[in-house]
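Notes from hallway chat w/ T.B., transcribed later so I don't forget. T.B. wanted the structure written out for a chain they're using in a teaching module, and asked if we could keep both sequence and C-alpha cells in one place. Agreed to drop them here.
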Amino acid sequence: MNANAEILENYSPSGEKLKVYTYPAPVLKKIAEPITEFNDDLKKLCKDMLYTMYHAPGIGLAAPQIGKSIRLFVMDIDFNREEVTRADGTKDYELSNFNPLILINPEIEKVEGEILYEEGCLSLPGLYEEVKRVEKIKVHYQDVEGNKHTLDADGLLSVCIQHENDHLEGIVFLERLSTLKRNFLTKRYLKRSGLR
C-alpha cells in the first residue's frame, strides 16, 4: 500500500501557495540533497507543493522550484482545469479529476525508445519547446513514510517524471536543447523577463 494515499486519497487541493522560483535563480542550478527524514513537515510540504502546482497551473513541481534543494517532486498529468464565470461576472477556474503523485528520492531507469514532446516549465514562464526524452522508463521512489515503490511510465507520464527529475539535478529543460536553440531562447527569455 502506498503511504502517499494518506494525502492523495479523495484528494482536494488544500494548503498554502508557495513562491515559485524562476530561472536563473541559483537554487535551480543546485543538485538536490536526498530526503532522510519522513515526518509531518514533509507531508505538509507535499500538500503545499500540490496546492501550488494546481493553482499555477502546472502538471509538475519539484522542490528546488519552491526554493528547497531536496529530492522531491509532485505531479498530476490527469487533472482538468476549466474556466468558469462566477455569478458576479468574474472569471475563475474549476479544477477536477485529480490524480496526484508524490515521488521522493526518485531514481530513473531508462528503458527504451525516444519521444519528442513540447515542454513548458513554471520556472520558465511563457517558454515552450520540443525536448527529446526517453519514451519508457522505470522509476524507483519513496512515499511520505519512506516506503519504496516502483512505477513504469511511458508517454507524457515518462516525460513529466524526467522533466521534474532534471530539476533535482540542477537542470532546466533549456539545457536539453541544442546549443544554438538554448542560447537563442535563453537570451529571449532573459530579455522578456527584464533580466538582460
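Follow-up for T.B.: The chain has a mean pLDDT of 92. Might be a good example for the class.
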